[in-house]
Amino acid sequence: MGHFSSMFSGLARSFSIKKVKNNNGTCDAKEKEMILKSCGYVYAEGSNNSASVFSKRGEKGVNQDCAIVWEGFGCQEDMIFCGIFDGHGPWGHYVAKHTCASVDQELEHHRKIDSYNSGTTAITIVRQGDVIYVSNVGDSRAVLATSSDEGSMVAIQLTLDFKPNLPQEKERIIGCNGRVFCMKDEPGVHRVWQPDTEAPGLAMSRAFGDYCIKEYGLVSVPEVTQRHISAKDHFIILASDGIWDVITNQEAIEIVSSTAERPKAAKRLVEQAVRAWKKKRRGIAMDDMSVVCLFLHSSSSSPSLSQHVQHATTFK
């Protein structure tokens, strides 16, 4: 675990380099289509990895998601990086290029980013061979679709949603003189507040930035786990909380698994979540929704990357 903890701590260096090894053993600029920051599909010939990506902006003003997929991450041909950054401020892409360990310190002194009153969650996966490493800060979620012993497809949640009302999170916040409570018009939605002011009202207990509440219990410490992939494991869904507010883990994997074409899987899940939101949360402003579907095994029907990387929508 030490090696990959260091890798997560070095995302800043890795993302800023964008290199792959050439015949001389050095690194050249990586082809743009291998790093996908927009809606589309990543599939490289000969790779076991493929990923479908889609995002839809919600109705909450400055809230902004960012999704990224990088095949050949860290100059390793057999490595892929996937991440979703659910920002409540205009800087999700900045975190996508920096490290879990140092991003808070860098953001605090960044001249162009208001890290005092804005922030972002971050959920990332690095896969190398048959091992995946998951890092989570906030309330986005990773769900694995796998086969049970009986042959049915089941959902396994790989991460914990860091909400303020979780016992260990609430204890830390209150111990730092922060407050946790729901607004009258949002029953069940627990938020973090400053001691004497009804601000900022964050609905998560871990995030990058948001320095206005950092001294009152908000932290940016990631939960990092690892798991070995088996032949029974099919795909992993990374999604921001707007998806999970209205779609269950089992519903999500069934939507993705029933999508005939892999490139359309993420978009179809978002579309189903939008319909569910309109039905279950009528009158409530829709949240941003971003999805990355990482398929863990190759498919003979998978088209080439060049046919499916689309740049019609870019998250900025």
Automatic annotation (TrEMBL):
The chain positions of domain PPM-type phosphatase read 50-296
Pfam families membership = PP2C (PF00481)
SMART domains in the record: PP2Cc
Q: Which residues form a coiled coil?
A: none
Recorded GO MF terms: protein serine/threonine phosphatase activity
Q: Which InterPro entries match?
A: PP2C, PPM-type-like_dom_sf, PPM-type_phosphatase-like_dom
Q: What is this protein called?
A: PPM-type phosphatase domain-containing protein
